[in-house]
C-alpha cells in the first residue's frame, strides 16, 4: 500500500464534508437569504429543493444517514439538471448545468463508498459493535 492509499478513507470524509457544505449554501440562499438573497420568488419546487439542500446538506456534512441522503440528493441533482438545465442546451457548459452534474455524481459515489471514518455513521457503527 502506498502512502496515498493509506489516506483514502479520510479523504473520502473530506470529499463528503466539503461537497455537503458547498451544497448546503444553495439551501441557505433559498430558505434563509444567506449569504445572498435568492433572486427569484420561491415556488413550491424551489422551496422543496431548498429544504432538501439545507437538511440534506447538514446531514451529509455530519455524516448521518449518509447513504440514503446521498442517494436522494443525487436524484435531486439529476432531476434539476434535466428539468432546469438540459432544456436550455445540450452542452452543460452552455446550459450552466456542470455543478448539478458534478453534485449528482459525487453524491452517487458517496452512496456506494459510504461516509468515511469522520462521520456520525462511522461512530454509530463502532458503538453498535461493542
Task: Describe this protein with a few key phrases.
130 residues; mainly alpha; 6 helices; 72% helix
Give your account of this protein's structure.
By secondary structure, the protein is mainly α. The chain has 6 helices and no strands. The mean pLDDT is 95.
N-end to C-end Cα span: 29 Å
The radius of gyration over CA amounts to 16 Å
Q: Beta-strand level of the residues, as a percent range?
A: under 5%
Please report the number of helical segments.
Answer: 6
Query: Which class of secondary structure composition applies to the elements?
Result: mainly alpha
* Major β-sheet annotation: none
The residue fraction in helices comes out at: over 70%
Cα shape: globular
The number of distinct β-strands equals 0
H-E string: HHHHHH
Low-confidence stretches: none
Number of domains: 1
> Average pLDDT, to the nearest integer?
95
List the helices and strands and how they pair.
Blueprint: H1 8-32, H2 44-62, H3 66-85, H4 92-95, H5 98-113, H6 120-129
Short summary:
This protein has helices spanning 8-32, 44-62, 66-85, 92-95, 98-113, 120-129.
Amino acid at each position: 500500500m502506498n502512502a496515498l492509499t493509506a489516506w483514502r478513507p479520510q479523504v473520502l470524509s473530506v470529499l463528503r464534508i466539503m461537497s455537503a457544505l458547498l451544497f448546503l449554501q444553495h439551501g441557505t440562499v433559498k430558505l434563509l437569504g444567506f449569504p445572498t438573497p435568492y433572486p427569484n420568488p420561491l415556488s413550491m419546487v424551489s422551496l422543496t429543493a431548498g429544504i432538501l439542500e439545507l437538511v440534506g446538506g447538514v446531514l451529509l456534512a455530519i455524516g448521518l444517514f449518509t447513504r440514503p441522503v446521498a442517494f436522494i440528493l443525487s436524484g435531486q441533482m439529476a432531476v434539476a439538471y434535466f428539468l432546469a438545465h438540459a432544456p436550455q442546451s445540450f452542452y452543460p457548459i452552455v446550459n450552466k448545468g456542470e455543478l448539478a452534474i458534478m453534485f449528482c455524481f459525487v453524491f452517487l459515489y458517496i452512496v456506494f463508498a459510504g461516509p468515511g471514518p469522520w462521520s456520525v455513521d462511522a461512530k454509530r457503527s463502532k458503538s453498535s459493535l461493542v
